[in-house]
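#struct-queue
[09:14] JT: dropping the first one here, sequence first, then the structure tokens:
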Amino acid sequence: MGKIFIIIQREYITRVRRKSFLITTLLAPLGFFLLIASSVLISTFSQGKTHVAIVDESGLFKDIPIPDADDQSVYFHRVTENYDDLLSEVTKEESAKYEALIFIPADFNVNTPNNPAIAYRYVKRPGMIKQQFINQRMTDVLQKLRMKMLQVDEQQIEDMQQKVKLNFESLDNSKEKQGYTDAAAIVGMVMGFAIYISLFFYGTMIMKGVMEEKSNRIVEVLTSSVQPFQLLMGKILGVGAVGLTQFVLWIILMFGVNLFSGVLFGIAMGSGAGMGELKNSGLDADDLLIVTQNLSALPIAQIVILFPLYFLGGFFLYGSLFAAVGAAMGEDGDQQSLMVPITIPIIISIFIAINVINNPDSSLGFWGSIIPFTSPIVMCALLPFRPEWWQILLSIVLLIGGFVLTTYVAAKIYRVGILMYGKKIKMSELVRWIFSKG
């Protein structure tokens, strides 16, 4: 045990002191900050203001208001100038007062399908979102005109078109109020993807570390002092400690970045531009507020305790297999096919996790949460939905058993493969190593 601890200490200190560790630890929060900053700056400065002149020769729309864009990117102006004169003026970009024209002819027919008679003339091409907005504004104006001509009460129509918002509440769990499912889905998906990415990232780190020591013949010196199993366990536990440390630092730094971003960009993020994008995307600000309020109703203590457990369990299970693959690979690393049996369960896990978000009580979610090769990702996605304690305990027991089994298999492969050079390893040979005695 003492030798394993020394290897753990060596792996941990060596990797933590590397510049790559410091860079990747700082880059994630910095990337998060840049994402927030760029989204705010883009939404604030990149839209550009478009002043649209409306020439209504029909006179039908004169009493119907046309609201400007909520994000202040499009302004509508009713004008009385002649269309031909105004059109020639707009083409002079430098001195033009308007960037575009909407022309409604005198013989405009309200009942014409699709209304191709309304023309939008521009010099600078509007983007897809801006085109959709302008088209929707004119559609709304036309509908109001039709209701006015039919003497229909506009308020009554709006009342009839109001959407129904059901209050979804669990019968057997009073804590799951309206909006809880949305909050649980967001947190579950974030945790599931965090485990998914970490398995690939840190698993590959172990595999490359083993391949590097093997190619440099350092492992020959190490195995003269420690057993291959001790070396394998020390490497897995050491890199796992590095990963957990990096995760904790990421959480702390991202919390600080989020707080700093809220202070720095609070005004910009709460401006009309942000609200305009929210409305254009079809999201409801009230719904988002309900989701945010329900985050505190999640089983925070359970998540805080179990997430690191599943992170480490999944890492140890797959880390041992990645180490075995690194030991079995040749110096040229041409046997990437050995990774396929490892990566397929990880990819399947994330697909099951997505299904769990939509169907938390499904049988697929249950089996995915207890099978060791999928439980680290699937159970983390399921935790915010409050699974039964017996299901969690069963999942943990099976995950520990899976880790023991994969470590045994990996140790068999590692013991032989780590000292084998210049030979391509076939899958049949790996199977023979696993079932060999000794």
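[09:21] JT: and here's the second one, same format:
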Amino acid sequence: MIPGWKIRRELGRLGQQLRGLGERLTDPAAQRRLDRAVAAGLPRIDGALALENRVALFLIYQPEGLAASTLETCRWLASAGYAPFVVSNAPIRKGDRERLAGAVWRAVERPNFGYDFGGYRDGLACLAQWGVTPEAMVILNDSVWLPVLPATDLLDRLAEHPADIAGTILRFRGEERFLESYIYHMHRSALKHPAFRAFWAGLRLTSNKYHVIRRGERGFSTAMRRAGLRVEGVYDDGAMAKRIAEQDTDFLRLTLRHAAYIDAPLAAERDRLMAGAGAGWRAAAVAHVETVLAKRLAYSSFPYAMVRLTSYPLLKKSAEPVSRAWRLAHLGAVAAGDLPAPPAPMLAEIRARDAGR
């Protein structure tokens, strides 16, 4: 039987595709209005931090008020030598402006059109208006809590990776290969590449999530790879089954104890394994991990192992069941003392996100 959440997800996608038919008529006019606003100069906040030779373009959408975790992320970026440049897809409340200004180099406000890729595009346009071409740039959004590991080396991994454009995980969908879009790192060579500039200049904006993913997340990686740019992830999700299998039995037990499931049969199988022992237990546990990872991603299925083996430092905020299960499993490992706690502002928000679930 197909799970109810999956049916609802597919119906939602179908609805988005149908709405996209009408949006083909309205989106171009909305984009023209936005283009005029960007050319005239978006509302701007000049922050307390200096411009550096590395910039972090941080897209946020927080219409209910600035989250404490946003300031935590800005401080993390600044501590690594990046000038935080916030692009807000919602007006920044008067009471939040001073708090934000103390943690950024600059911020701008734009209409909420185009999701993250609309904000990325307009943020890049602002930098061009201001004559800012950094040596390197991180582009990220607030769809994740980052970093949930206080001592993460993610920014170093991204900066030191030889790829022209690096991210966390390179996903595979059939013949497509694309980076998950919540964080990218680009060297100046990529920022100045004609294909990079052409992609953003030609991007058709929409607030239809189905098309944003295909034109933006998938389209960006495809366009850059076709232009000959190297696009890679710094974490190898596909290697996790082998790495977990190489660990000792205690590690395997903790991996399963803090696993996350949305498939009831796999959850039941894990429960049987956790209740058992004996000579064949290890082989059965490894086989279970391989079965799970044949259909699910390692970072969301086995957060304990992903953090311990790779220092994977983020949690997604998505309401989808897989992300909720992942967050709860991660919190369980933190509560048990098996994973380090996220910074206090993030921990409070993560707990509140799934309270009562």
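[09:30] RK: nice, looked through the second one.
[09:31] RK: The mean pLDDT is 93.
[09:31] JT: good to know. The chain has two domains: 17-233, 237-353.
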